[in-house]
Amino acid sequence: MRYQLSEIARICGAKHIGTDVEVREVVVDSRSHAFGGGAMFVAICGQAHDAHDFIGEMYSRGLRAFMVERDVDAGLYPEAGFVRVDNSLEALQQLAAIHRASFKGKIVGITGSYGKTIVKEWIAGALPAEVKFFASPMSYNSQLGVALSLLMMEGDEELAIFEAGISEMGEMERLERIIRPDVVVFTSLGDAHQEHFTDLEQKAREKLVLARSARRIIYH
Q: Is the pTM here over 0.90, yes or no?
């Protein structure tokens, strides 16, 4: 990915405050040490934590781009720029959807109760050496993980492979809008994360949403 912070604000329908810097990667974990120049820290409010508490620390470590869910005193961070959104996860999904729309290669989406990562690795391992591809990191299959994975694409790959995992109704609808796979692979269906579904049939119908616009479906 490669976006100006002001462009991210426009895509997300948000407000841009402060400096305008180029963003080349997204960081959501303040404990991460694996980021370089061009990283944007996304502050997400969870049930047991508030990532806004770490903005000062991330600024002191060199980050100059932030996505936030509440107002921040930009004067405390004179070299930084902020994108002020209502919901960081939803904003990241919007950005990921736009990034995916600009992708010219083919996308494979993999879903199922078990075996998603193994199938993804099989596909990646079977590709010819000359094919440039992207495969999402292990288990990055959640609402947040899928968005982060899509934003990791450089954009010139011939093929990209993503896992899609769900734990309740409505989640696959959101993932399908982001991934929009050309090919969908369904692995085995089981009772993993079953607590929010009435039965396996309901769960199966939810997973089938991923294939809504796919050109090819494969059952593994």
A: yes
